[in-house]
Amino acid sequence: MPIYEYQCKACGHEMEALQRMSDAPLTDCPACEQAELSKKISAAGFRLKGGGWYETDFKTGGKKNLAGDSASAGGNKPAAKPAAEAS
Fold first, then answer.
1. pLDDT tens, 39-83?
2. pLDDT tens for each residue of 8-40
3. In sequence order, which ranges of the chain are alpha helices (DSSP H)?
4. Is 73 helix (H, G, I), strand (E, B) or coil?
5. How far from each other are the two terminal CA atoms of the chain, in whole angstroms?
6. Are 54 and 65 in contact (CB under 8 A)?
7. By CB neighbour count within 10 A (0-12 exposed, 13-18 middle, 19+ buried), where does 26 fall?
8. Are the C-beta atoms of 13 and 31 separated by less than 8 Å?
9. CA triplet 22, 26, 29: central angle to 5 degrees?
10. Of 43, 47, 15, 19, which is closest to residue 29 (Cα–Cα)?
């Protein structure tokens, strides 16, 4: 479930809420009890892990394509010929 950020237009209170995508947006501020909450636009609250992901904002230094790093170690070698073609 995604985490949504809200801000009250009346009092400025900010909060986060864990909601399903199908849930209706929250409207009532828990601080001032006015119906002035609005959903904020913010960065995603999750990180994709595992092989197959490419450059992201979460990498540091020279690490760009972690999934390709192991393949690039053997790098640009041509594929071995099958035994039948080798002779």
1. 998 776 666 666 666 655 555 666 555 555 555 544 455 555 556
2. 999 999 999 999 889 999 999 999 999 999 999
3. 66-74, 83-86
4. helix
5. 59
6. yes
7. middle
8. yes
9. 170
10. 15
